[in-house]
Design brief:
The chain has 5 helices and 4 strands; from the N terminus they run ααββαααββ. A hairpin with a 5-residue loop joins β3 and β4. The relative contact order is 0.16.
């Protein structure tokens, strides 16, 4: 067990934080470890398809975002784009968004390619953004 996890559990047992706060902190530690456990934040070479797309944002203003999107939802979204009404698709295309290409994407290849996705942003004012799959 990591030192961070131990400290969180100690604070919980001492009553310094609530169970909800401990849970939130443990989630953040898990997200952070999934990025930094291996060299350069890469995955451990696991060949299984990722199950989730994660977006984690921590701002110095106290804003926190932790989004976990199931890959099955992404697969469904790609298929649903093919069912979009022509008028809506035309309006989007006029604004530079062409979703018609999504229906021709090989879904499994896209999901497999997302395994390699990694976005790490650390701003000069302390804000952090992480986008990755797990």
């Amino acid at each position: 067990m990591s030192d961070s996890r131990m400290k969180i559990l100690e604070m919980l047992s001492e009553g310094k934080i609530t169970a909800d706060e401990a849970s939130s902190l443990l989630e953040k530690v898990t997200a952070s470890e999934s990025i930094t456990d291996t060299p350069e934040g890469k995955t451990d070479g696991n060949t299984t398809s990722p199950r989730y797309l994660r977006v984690v944002v921590n701002s110095t203003d106290g804003d926190k975002v932790n989004v976990k999107i199931p890959m099955s939802l992404i697969r469904t979204g790609i298929k649903l784009s093919a069912l979009m009404p022509a008028e809506a698709a035309a309006t989007m295309q006029e604004n530079g968004i062409d979703l018609t290409t999504l229906r021709d994407l090989p879904t499994d290849e896209l999901i497999d390619a997302l395994r390699e996705l990694e976005v790490n942003v650390d701003s000069t004012d302390g804000d952090t953004v992480r986008v990755f799959t797990e």
